């Protein structure tokens, strides 16, 4: 008996990697679209008459809809060719960006962010499963690293460019710049993505069956805590840098650039070590993030120290996503779409939880409390990962 993946036709390698690179650009645009408001939090809030905490919640609304979309996507898509599902998600991102750029009120911004959330959830729910179909098994971690290079690029340049250009052309102009790039990405996907017929019709029962696996449930819980800890700090990094570090717009952009560029190291490390050392990666990431966040609370008034700490945090942030997706591909390879839906729902729930918790702490106590909450969540994640033995699939779930 052969595994489900081995029965799939693998496209010619040149075409397959072209499709992987088109997905990488889509990831870059998704990350830029989702997190660009972090670097523009203050001007967006001022323009739309909202507090910084409320604007942070507008960021989190995309997470709420991404959770819903990720859980429903593989079931509602049925047997629709996955190529066209991915293209539909890219088209929806294009519509959302136009609405964000033109938003006359806070309500319209929330609506546009909701549409973006559907796109995010739908794309990520299928992303890892599609990668597993495009390339041979031994190349999956490398292909994931290529796809997540888009995340590193967006992390490196979206925030600093966003904060810099926002001061020149305004935050709306920044989002208008993204529109033609996403349009070009849509055309590229039409040209290079191969036909990817659905193999089985997914159901909610499939999701529940995967979730009932003890090792997977343990992993999902660790995912929620790891990502919520990371995002509750990242979403409110600009207010911290402005009030505690005391930087101007130029230095702010430089610090975001340091954080983002370090993500390229995290992408390389994730692709290099996820195959053979995935558990160690999942242990190191939240532990280091917690230590760095505490370091920022203690030494955030020093610009050079802050830059060094943000560089370390940026490495961990990019490696974090690759590590968990590699864990999924190694331990739930028999049900990648169901597992992908669940893990994306967990990650987006974490963004929602992190932004909500961080925003509440920021508005009612202060930014130090926001960062302390982030460190606590990351610390609990370390305890949940533990030795890693409980995150590995039992032989009873292996398929010949």
Descriptive account of the structure:
- The structure is a single chain.
- The chain has 400 residues and is an all-alpha fold.
- It is 82% helix and 0% strand.
- The chain has 13 helices and no strands.
- α6 (140-192) crosses α11 (303-331).
- It is globular and about 55 Å long.
- The model is unreliable at 1-11 and 395-400 (pLDDT under 50).
Largest sheet: none
- What is the overall number of helices? 13
SS elements, strand count? 0
Q: Over all CA atoms, what is the radius of gyration?
A: 20 Å
Order of helices and strands: HHHHHHHHHHHHH
Report the end-to-end length measured between terminal Cα atoms.
Answer: 6 Å
Mean pLDDT equals: 82
Please give the share of residues in helix: over 70%
Low-pLDDT segments, ≥5 res: 1-11, 395-400
Please identify the structural class as seen in this structure.
mainly alpha
Overall morphology: globular
- Strand proportion: under 5%
Helix-strand layout with pairing:
Layout: H1 13-39, H2 41-48, H3 52-76, H4 82-102, H5 106-134, H6 140-192, H7 204-211, H8 214-234, H9 237-245, H10 249-299, H11 303-331, H12 336-364, H13 367-385
Helix pairs in contact: 1-3, 1-5, 1-6, 2-3, 3-5, 3-12, 4-5, 4-6, 5-12, 6-10, 6-11, 7-12, 8-10, 8-11, 8-12, 8-13, 10-11, 10-13, 12-13
């Amino acid at each position: 008996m052969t595994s489900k993946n081995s029965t799939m036709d693998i496209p010619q390698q040149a075409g397959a990697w072209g499709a992987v690179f088109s997905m990488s650009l889509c990831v870059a645009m998704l990350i830029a679209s989702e997190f660009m408001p972090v670097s523009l939090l203050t001007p967006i809030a001022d323009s739309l008459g909202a507090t910084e905490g409320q604007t942070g919640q507008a960021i989190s609304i995309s997470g709420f809809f991404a959770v819903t979309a990720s859980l429903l996507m593989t079931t509602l898509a049925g047997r629709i060719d996955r190529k066209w599902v991915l293209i539909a998600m890219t088209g929806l991102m294009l519509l959302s960006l136009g609405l964000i750029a033109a938003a006359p009120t806070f309500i319209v911004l929330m609506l546009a962010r909701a549409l973006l959330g559907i796109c995010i959830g739908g794309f990520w729910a299928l992303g890892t499963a599609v990668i597993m179909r495009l390339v041979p098994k031994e190349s999956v971690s490398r292909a994931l690293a290529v796809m997540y290079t888009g995340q590193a690029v967006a992390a490196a340049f979206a925030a600093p460019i966003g904060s810099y250009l926002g001061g020149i052309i305004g935050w709306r102009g920044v989002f208008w710049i993204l529109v033609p790039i996403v349009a070009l990405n849509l055309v590229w996907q039409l040209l290079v993505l191969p036909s990817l017929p659905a193999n089985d019709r997914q159901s909610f029962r499939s999701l529940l069956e995967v979730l009932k696996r003890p090792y997977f449930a343990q992993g999902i819980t660790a995912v929620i805590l790891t990502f919520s800890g990371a995002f509750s700090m990242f979403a409110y990094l600009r207010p911290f840098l402005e009030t505690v570090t005391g930087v101007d717009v130029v230095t702010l952009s430089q610090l975001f650039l340091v954080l983002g560029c370090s993500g390229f190291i995290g992408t390389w490390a994730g692709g290099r070590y996820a195959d053979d050392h995935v558990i160690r990666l999942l242990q190191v990431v939240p532990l280091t993030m917690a230590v760095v966040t505490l370091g920022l609370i203690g030494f955030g008034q020093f610009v050079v120290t802050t830059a060094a700490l943000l560089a370390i945090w940026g490495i961990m942030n990019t490696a974090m996503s690759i590590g968990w997706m590699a864990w999924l591909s190694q331990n739930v390879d028999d049900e990648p779409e169901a597992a992908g839906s669940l893990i994306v729902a967990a990650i987006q729930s974490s963004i929602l939880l992190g932004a909500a918790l961080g925003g509440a702490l920021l508005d009612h106590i202060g930014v130090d409390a926001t960062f302390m909450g982030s460190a606590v969540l990351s610390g609990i994640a370390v305890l949940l990962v533990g030795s890693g033995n409980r995150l590995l699939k039992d032989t009873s779930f292996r398929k010949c």
